[in-house]
Amino acid sequence: MDHDQPQRPGGPQAAAGVPAGAQAAEGVPAGPQNRGPVADRGSPAPAAMAAGTAPGQAEPAPVGAEPEPLIFSYSRPGRGGMVWPEPDVPVRPVEERVPAELLRQEAPALPEVAEVDLVRHYTRLSQMNHAVDTGFYPLGSCTMKYNPKVNERVAALPGFAGLHPYVPDELAQGALRLMWELERALCEMGGMTRATLQPAAGAHGELTGILLIRAYHRARGQGHRHKVIVPDSAHGTNPATAAMAGYRVVEVPSDARGGVDLGALEAALDDDVAALMLTNPNTLGLFDENIHRIAEMVHAAGGLLYYDGANANAILGISRPGDMGFDVVHFNLHKTFSTPHGGGGPGSGPVGVKEELVPFLPAPLVERDPATGRFYLDYERPQAIGRMRSFYGNFAILVRAYTYIRALGAEGLRRVSEDAVLNANYVMRQLAGLFRLPYDRTCMHEFVLSAANLKERTGVRALDVAKRLLDFGIHPPTIYFPLIVEEALMIEPTETESKETLDRFVAVMRRIVREAQEEPEVVRQAPHTTPVSRLDEALAARRPVLRWRPEGEDAR
């Protein structure tokens, strides 16, 4: 965004180990971070020229006092970072290859920079990003856990990274075996019979699952079923997926304990219902105590149960969706099984199904010849819903997830969920006295607080709390979701965070609440230490500036 931003206010030098401008919470040592102290940002460079400054040149400002310039600011005519070799093929004039009406009359305004300037510029930009490798990321509903580096090393092995998707089966036995074993591991954890690895994200897995359910009903002569039931606490992708597949969405409310209201569910069930889409534990971080009764009700009405696997990080080795009564489940490999997450991808959302839905899985599936032990791709699937992705899914993500599962084993995966649940309950109880706890019961891997009490007393909103956390080097939690909780703060610590990190987070939250009571403007105007301060959100949404234009070029 290129909108005008407020100048960074001045402040004391950061404590050691805290990101530029961030502050340590009282009584709690700063967590390890990727950036150290930074000079005071509050003093703009004086207009007067300092001794030794060249005529016409502004006095240098301290590091961090000014925003990183655009790459074009480093451009100088004739400067470059590489030398092109002489062509070793005949050269034809571009006029002979491109129609005249498509030829430029002027050269494009591309930056001309040296390699060292290019590398430093983009390295500095990368250091402005928050990442799970550099700081705590308690983003509820997204399971932003640390990704072990062994996953990356295995995915980079030449036999995996350099494998062409069109290579014959006999030359891809290692990759096919990995996919075959990963499918069976996921089915074991989900209580499913078979699975497709094609879907490239969780929402893509949702669509695959709903299309499988649609194919199942049509094959049984039940194509008239046109409704999908979705709880009011569901991820927003659930109703969107159902609508995309041609279904009418019916919402049911939550009960007083945060589960599905059984009375409302019973009223919604009829012969037109195709499925119930459910997350368990749900988006409130609560395990639905009535899940077996819910499954009985939906199945009695002729519908199927779809399991949104976004929150599977809480149940590994403890409970299985198939045992709860679910017929279809998707797993988010980029959440539960520790592969890179965010920045638009890549992701992976394999979908597992019970026996009666196996014929509809997308082709191909990896099969194993029992006589020879050789693996092969089976395309002979006449009832398949069709291919959901080119080739066989995001293979490098499959490798990372397989590595994670094999490294931990069954006991390790159960420990993942036990620690995730323990961490969430520990933090929830530490913060329950500061914020409202809408559902006061044991949570699973995440929990939802309400900042409505803080807003009533001080005018400080959940958004303000989230922005202030940035000043302490902590990524904000999810806010204003689920929609059924006013001023929601949705927090997921994950199992990879230490008690020291959690204690620092709690101390920071306590400080923010105290600031809201004593100095509310400090919180309402946050963040104060980031490269860009709080955006005018309405202007940024309606009139975004997404590209640079040379001086004098018409911006229309």
From TrEMBL:
The superkingdom of the source organism is Bacteria
Output the InterPro entries linked to this UniProt entry: Aminotrans_V_dom, GcvPB, GDC-P_C, GDC_P, PyrdxlP-dep_Trfase, PyrdxlP-dep_Trfase_major, PyrdxlP-dep_Trfase_small
Q: What residue stretches are annotated with the Glycine dehydrogenase C-terminal domain?
A: 417-518
Transport is among the record's keywords: no
The chemistry this enzyme catalyses reads:
N(6)-[(R)-lipoyl]-L-lysyl-[glycine-cleavage complex H protein] + glycine + H(+) = N(6)-[(R)-S(8)-aminomethyldihydrolipoyl]-L-lysyl-[glycine-cleavage complex H protein] + CO2
State the residue spans of region: Disordered: 1-67
Query: Any transmembrane segments, and where?
Result: none
Q: Which BP terms from GO are recorded?
A: glycine decarboxylation via glycine cleavage system
Gene Ontology cellular component terms for the protein in this record: cytosol; glycine cleavage complex
Homology family: Belongs to the GcvP family. C-terminal subunit subfamily.
Functional summary from the UniProt entry: The glycine cleavage system catalyzes the degradation of glycine. The P protein binds the alpha-amino group of glycine through its pyridoxal phosphate cofactor; CO(2) is released and the remaining methylamine moiety is then transferred to the lipoamide cofactor of the H protein.
UniProt cross-references to NCBIfam families, sorted A to Z: PRK04366.1 (NF003346)
Name of the molecule in the record: Probable glycine dehydrogenase (decarboxylating) subunit 2
From which organism does this entry originate? Thermaerobacter subterraneus DSM 13965
